[in-house]
Amino acid sequence: MSGAKNSALPAMAASLLTDSLVLSNVPEVQDILSMGELLMGMGKTGRHEGDHWVLEGSRLHSCEASYELVKKMRASILVLGPLLARYGEVKVAYPGGCNIGARPVDLHIEGLKKMGAKIDVEHGTIHATARRLQGTEIHFDKVTVTGTENLLMAATLAQGTTVINNAAREPEVTDLVRLLKKMGARIGGEGSDTLVVEGVESLGPAEHRIIPDRIEGGTFFVLGALCADELVVRNLEPLHLKSLLSKAGEAGVSFTQEADLIRVKRCLSLKPLDLETQPYPGFPTDMQAQFMVLLTQAEGRSLIRETIFPGRYHHVDELLRLGASLKKRENGEVMVSGPTPLSGAEVTATDLRASACLVIAGLLASGVSVVNDIHHLERGYERLVDKIRSVGGDVGYLL
Ligand code: EPZ
């Protein structure tokens, strides 16, 4: 597995807090290049080779993230906290929606306002200024991953102590805490839902290795549980996949795990189950589409409830084209009946994880499937086609 995109993105944004940052195990995916483009457009000097990135510089000539960049990558919002904390001003286009539904940033803005930032949102742009952010107690009404990351980065250079309650506990947030502490930040509560940050005057250089991508790992795990004699998924932290592995065990999937790998084999009789996505350590929303494919082969009826992004069901219509038996219910649940043999068809990807689910379904289906709009895949999966071919999957690009 490659490094985690959703850990590398905040880590790259954290380069705004210091003069020199060296990152390794950074995945070579489009979102990372977009973040690099954003940072260098502001004045950071950056270079990268393979999975290594070096981001340097202290003087910026712009503190603006343009709409075309934010439209391409929502994670651009992660420059809000660090730029405010170190440079006292930032302009970020208000992120639009995306294919998994509305993506508000009100919690980011409210938190920064509580720290003393002056924030105007007009003509589609968030314009924030702050002489010096003040430490304060913040309580997130909803668990927000990038909201936690933004406030965390902002608090590292604030005057005084900031307490973030109901903080996200995703491994990517903990990875950012570890990076910031290497830079000299004073942070307590690592891995818990309460982070305490004691502001310092400045942060120093750091080197950091990004954690493995647990969602890429989960994606291959599901592929193995459906199609492999035995698949070994290497370079991942099984601990980061506890909720997925526990649900897979409930469905009857047999697998073994070691320190940095999981062995999984095709399960011939899958049991149905009910699934609800939750913030970490609950079942990840980024694995909902992939797990839905698995449940199409379970013997009986399963119920899936997406609680993080209620609109995250665009893959359902595409899976129906492959012969899956799915039913969207009024209350936002999807009923999956199985086992249903899937047959190849032409389908269209709508978002990053839906694309991966369609590739898995195409490999499982009899006959040939064509997945269109796979630019979504390239945003967040490094060399997915090569990796699948390396274990015998019959997949290739239609040029
Ligand atoms: C992060 O998005 C990830 N992206 C997403 O991964 C992931 O699906 C999501 O967390 C949930 O785990 C990155 O880390 C770059 P949230 P984020 O803020 O931070 C609501 C992928 O596939 N909310 O945790 O944008 C929001 O609408 C991507 O790699 C507010 O209401 O998600 C959602 O319902 C897709 N107000 C819930 O909170 C806010 O100010 C969780 O969103 C912020 C969020």
State the gist of this model:
The chain is an alpha/beta fold and 399 residues long. It has helices spanning 5-13, 30-42, 67-72, 80-87, 106-114, 145-156, 171-182, 214-227, 242-250, 288-295, 314-321, 352-364, 375-380, 384-390, and strands at 20-24, 45-49, 52-56, 64-65, 89-93, 118-122, 125-129, 137-139, 161-165, 186-188, 194-198, 206-209, 231-234, 255-258, 261-264, 274-276, 300-305, 325-328, 333-338, 346-348, 370-372. The protein contains 14 helices and 21 strands.
Structural features:
alpha/beta; 399 residues; four-stranded mixed beta sheet; 2 domains; binds ligand EPZ; UDP-n-acetylglucosamine1-carboxyvinyl-transferase, Chain; 14 helices
Give a structural overview:
- This protein has 399 residues and is an alpha/beta fold.
- It folds into 2 domains: 5-209, Enolpyruvate transferase domain (UDP-n-acetylglucosamine1-carboxyvinyl-transferase, Chain, Alpha-beta prism), CATH 3.65.10.10; 214-390, UDP-n-acetylglucosamine1-carboxyvinyl-transferase, Chain.
- 34% of the residues lie in helices and 22% in strands.
- The chain is built from 14 helices and 21 strands.
- It has helices at residues 5-13, 30-42, 67-72, 80-87, 106-114, 145-156, 171-182, 214-227, 242-250, 288-295, 314-321, 352-364, 375-380, 384-390, and strands spanning 20-24, 45-49, 52-56, 64-65, 89-93, 118-122, 125-129, 137-139, 161-165, 186-188, 194-198, 206-209, 231-234, 255-258, 261-264, 274-276, 300-305, 325-328, 333-338, 346-348, 370-372.
- The protein has a 4-stranded mixed beta sheet with strand order 2-3-1-12, covered by helices on one side.
- α6 (145-156) links the parallel β8 and β9 (161-165).
- α6 (145-156) packs parallel to α7 (171-182).
- It is globular, with a radius of gyration of 21 Å.
- Residues 6, 9, 75, 103-108, 142, 144-147, 285-286, 308-309, 352-353, 380 line the site of ligand EPZ.
